[in-house]
Amino acid sequence: MEFPVLTDLIFKDCSKLSTIKIKANLLIELNITNCSKLNSFLVECPHLQILTLRDTLTVQNYNNIIDFVNSNFKNSLKYLDIGFSNIKNYDFNDQKDLILILPNIETLKATNLLGIENFALFLTHCKVLEINFSSLKLITGQMIKLQTITPEPPPPQISNDILLKLKKIQILLFGLEDVKVCKPFFEDYFKQISAPESLFNVIKNNENSSNSEINQKSKFSIHSKNCSQFVIFFLDLFNTQWGEYDCFSKLNSQISNFKFKNSKEHYQHITFILITSKSILSEYNEKAIGKLNDIKKKFNFHYQVDLILEISKKETFELFCDQLFDIFQKTLF
Fold first, then answer.
1. CB distance 116 to 98 below 8 Å
2. pTM for this one?
3. In which region does residue 294 sit, left (phi positive, over 0), alpha (psi from -120 to 50) or beta (all else)?
4. Contact (Cβ atoms closer than 8 angstroms) between residue 62 and residue 40
5. Residues 265-275: pLDDT tens digits?
6. In this structure, are residues 48 and 70 in contact, taking their beta carbons and an 8 Å threshold?
7. Contacts of 191 (CB under 8 A, 6+ apart)
């Protein structure tokens, strides 16, 4: 159904409502309360700012509804109130995860997360988080403008720790274990900027499982890493080998796994950086150039940083820091 001039819409206590399919270009506020049979949520509202899904989410519908919200209201939504229905006979035996990627949201209320154990949040403009911790085992993500968390069922110190953790800018690293030459520079750099008083939280990727080995726990591990602001891939061209070990194949595998485990909507907010280390004296052969270009075609890197290893360590480190800081400032400020 199409509503060309509608600005506010409420569905309340609609016990048999299973589908909402509307187009409303001027809709600002949508309230869906106590509609637990909802399973199809197709709402075309490009200017929606306020969304309430209170007592409506269920174990059967929440993945589809939240995925739709993440994909379609990412740029417009300012306020979100979500909550599970309290009706019985839900099967919460399996681990339940919830991920929200809504960079422009300012207020999030999640006061009934019935059965949800792991909550991943990428809400960079959110200032107010009202949440019930009763079922949560893990909360992770990035909310650098967060000012308050209410209510506070856990001890105040735990709430403070969560607040400090969410306010950090997350950086996810791929391939650092294999880049023996530039690893010391990078670790020293982040050792400085990741001090307790800094805004950075660095996560090393240890995901070595094949696509067929993905389980519910590893899925959440990947989803929580999607709440990073930056994802950095290393390519060590200085120690390139064409035999048993191939740095290009390794990076290709990491990128393929990342894309396989994530829908594109879940990483559109991320800035991807490719860091290459190479000798100033070495010349790329055609094979290396071709492989590097193939990787760039498969994955859209926003920035590339080249480390020249034949100059002094101090110069390398300073140049490296300067380039990364430039990227961070362009992206964050």
1. yes
2. 0.75
3. alpha
4. no
5. 677 788 888 88
6. no
7. none
